[in-house]
Write a structure and sequence with these properties.
Number of domains: 2
Strand content: 15-25%
Strand order of the largest sheet: 10-9-11-8-7-12-13
Shape: globular
Number of strands: 16
Order of helices and strands: HHHHHEEEHEHEHEHEHEHEHEEHEHEEEE
CATH topology of the largest domain: Aldehyde Dehydrogenase, Chain A, domain 1
Radius of gyration: 24 Å
CATH class of the largest domain: Alpha Beta
CATH architecture of the largest domain: 3-Layer(aba) Sandwich
Helix content: 40-55%
Structural class: alpha/beta
Number of helices: 14
CATH superfamily of the largest domain: Aldehyde Dehydrogenase, Chain A, domain 1
């Protein structure tokens, strides 16, 4: 008799329970879904003290481990962020239910009637780091789209994630539904992750969102289709025809507002003929940004530090900005093609032809003209919350919202037709 490991038994039981829950919820009506989500939003507020208590444990542990201020910010929940979580749930509740939507209806010449409709993906596993809001965002999106989800967060947020998942599960139970529709993995050891990635009978899709190491590990070990939400090495290009009144606010917002998120800019590319480079660098430095400068920008702003070539490939998730000076827009594009992770690229310019050339020359999930890179977000795109921002090209690219958690089934009806 083959001896099964503790890890294998644990994973099998969780996956089977999630699949059973999916079979229960896959086609429940929209009003039932919305009732659960409304209860969830209310419970997040009424149980705020529990959430803050557990989050404080994670923050204390994070500080003792020496996490950076940006990573601690990603980990932090406060009154405002809990309210934002509740608001995000209500936004998802208000979105149209994609399940059952007809995407194609046609009658063939032989009289066969075809209807292609949206159906849930099944069991969605999301593996994520640091940000406890993902537990609620992904749980709500998965539930509204008729999917069960398996959530595996990072060890740094274990207490916060546990209480948030428990609150969601309590809401499901109160409405007579299986709590396993939102299954939470409370084991964060790496050896527990690999068995999940082999569960082709139970899990339909795996979504890793986090650092480069996590993405590579999941991609190399998974037998299940993977939608990668990779790191954000985001480039912001300041063209020679950029309006200085737009440049500094866009650069500051792209870097400073929340440096620890994937849509924050990491590389600042400046055309050598842009006349206000000194003012731009001074403005960023005044906001606490550590500037890593190439020789030409360092000669303009000697208070910075010399940049290393490897810095241009780094997702800092912190108040550090790598700066590159270029002589042409073509040089800027060549630089981006080498450094970009395919997440977001932005240009600031008043030259329409330059903007069009920039947008038409690059291959990333989002390309922006004269707006902050921070707008690459499911909520900002009108999708409600998001599972993450996909940097791959298959199934979905960019913010993965409600509709992207569905696939299609084609229903055919006839009067006895057979194929000749």
């Amino acid at each position: 008799m083959i001896q099964r490991s503790a890890e294998s038994i644990y994973v099998d039981e969780l996956c089977k329970s999630a699949k059973d829950a999916y079979r229960q919820i896959r086609f429940i009506n929209t009003s039932k879904k919305n009732k659960v989500l409304e209860k969830l939003a209310s419970s997040l507020i009424s149980r705020k003290s529990e959430i803050l208590k557990e989050n404080a444990k994670d923050l204390e542990a994070g500080k003792s481990k020496g996490l950076s201020s940006a990573l601690l910010d990603r980990l932090t929940l406060d009154d405002k962020r809990i309210q934002n979580l509740a608001n995000a749930v209500l936004e998802i509740k208000a979105l149209p239910d994609p399940v059952g939507e007809t995407v194609r209806g046609v009658t063939l010449p032989n009289g066969v009637r075809l209807n292609t409709k949206r159906v849930p993906l099944g069991v969605v596993m999301v593996i994520y780091e640091s940000r406890p809001n993902v537990t609620i965002d992904v749980g709500a999106l998965s539930f509204k789209s008729g999917n069960a989800c398996i959530l595996r967060g990072g060890s740094e947020a274990i207490h916060s994630n546990t209480i948030l998942a428990k609150i969601f599960q309590d809401c499901l139970v109160e409405e007579g539904l299986s709590p396993n529709a939102v299954t939470f993995v409370d084991r964060t050891e790496r050896e527990y992750m690999i068995p999940f990635l082999k569960q082709t009978s139970y899990i339909d899709i795996v979504v890793p969102r986090g650092g480069e190491g996590l993405i590579r590990f999941v991609s190399e070990n998974s037998l299940i289709p993977v939608v990668k939400h990779d790191k954000g090495v985001v480039n912001l290009y300041i063209d020679k025809e950029a309006d200085p009144k737009k440049v500094l606010p866009i650069a500051v917002n792209s870097k400073v507002q929340r440096p620890g998120v994937c849509n924050a800019a990491e590389n600042l590319i400046i055309h050598s003929e842009y006349p206000y480079t000194k003012e731009l660098l001074e403005g960023l430095a005044s906001k606490g940004v550590q500037l890593l400068l190439d020789p030409r920008s360092l000669s303009i702003f000697p208070k910075g530090q010399p940049v290393k070539e490897e810095d241009y490939l780094e997702e800092f998730l912190d108040l550090r900005f790598s700066v590159k000076t270029v002589d042409t827009i073509q040089e800027a594009i060549q630089f981006i093609e080498v450094t970009s992770s395919g997440h977001t690229e932005a240009i600031v310019t008043e030259d329409v032809s330059a903007a069009n050339y920039f947008a038409g020359s690059l291959d990333s999930a989002a390309i922006f003209v004269n707006i902050s890179t921070r707008f690459h977000d499911g909520g900002e795109f009108g999708l409600g919350a998001e599972v993450g921002i996909s940097t791959g090209k298959l199934h979905v690219r960019g913010p993965m919202g409600l509709v992207h958690l569905t696939t299609t089934t084609t229903y055919a009806e006839g009067e006895g037709q057979v194929r000749g």
